[in-house]
Amino acid sequence: VQLQASGGGLVQPGGSLRLSCEASGFTFSGYAMSWARQAPGKGREWVSRINARGGFTAYSDSVKGRFTIYRDNAKNTLYLQMNSLKPDDTAVYYCARARNDNIYSTYIYWGQGTQVTVSS
Question: Which of 16, 34, 100, 118 is 20 to 30 Å from 82 at the Cα level?
Answer without folding.
Answer: 100
